[in-house]
Amino acid sequence: MKLQKETSGAPGTIRRVAGGEAAGPHGRWYGDACGAAFAMELIGERWSLPIIREMMLGPRRFGEIRAELPGLSAKTLTERLESLERSGIVRRVLLPPPASVQVYQLTEWGLALEPVMQELGRWAVRSTLHDPTLPITPVSLMLSMRTMIVAERIGDLSLTALFKVGSARFLATFAEGELRIHPAGDDGPEPDLRFSAPAGFPYLAVFYGKHGASDAGLDVEGDPDLARRFIDLFSLPPKCAS
């Protein structure tokens, strides 16, 4: 039986086992009261952030998540989902008929990670080590667009855009100066612009690299001037000094 000692602190009580190892998830790696360190204990295990990312635009089935992350085994995905569920970041939901399938979705607290991930993304792409030619999932692409839009350039622009990335479809709209993106159904509004590519890289080349759409393999339908104005809203931050 492990001996325990308790150290009182406000608010609540911190429990530690003999030797200083934390009894709960906080302190299990670092033994540090820092909130950022605790965040890494909650979401810092390998694959945790990509799994969270894939649920950021809506609930996903187990198989859908795994299909988007081919390097992730079913065993590891199961373990990470269980851990994130215990932490209150993810919950399991049974969809109503006719679907009647179990999906995983982020809790309100889990969804609050998006601005954190956006800041991490802006910070990380400034590194000269970042390789934009690596694969990017459709959800990751959409989240990157929400991250890399330059709000000061929006002005009075108002439009609806449909994005097709392989078989995935997303609808984007501006609301109160914010770019809102969600999976597109079959009965949505008629978009002002349509973008289509078999994978994410053509989008990266056009929206961030500013290459021509036809040269990059991105199909664009709609008013050309409106499309150019929309594309010009997106920009990557400058690389950090070496």
TrEMBL record:
One of its GO terms (biological process) is regulation of DNA-templated transcription. Gene3D superfamilies: Winged helix-like DNA-binding domain superfamily/Winged helix DNA-binding domain. This is Transcriptional regulator. The keyword Transcription regulation applies. Keywords: DNA-binding, Transcription, Transcription regulation. PROSITE patterns: HTH_HXLR. It comes from the Bacteria. It comes from Novosphingobium silvae. InterPro entries: ArsR-like_HTH, HTH_HxlR, WH-like_DNA-bd_sf, WH_DNA-bd_sf. GO terms for molecular function: DNA binding.
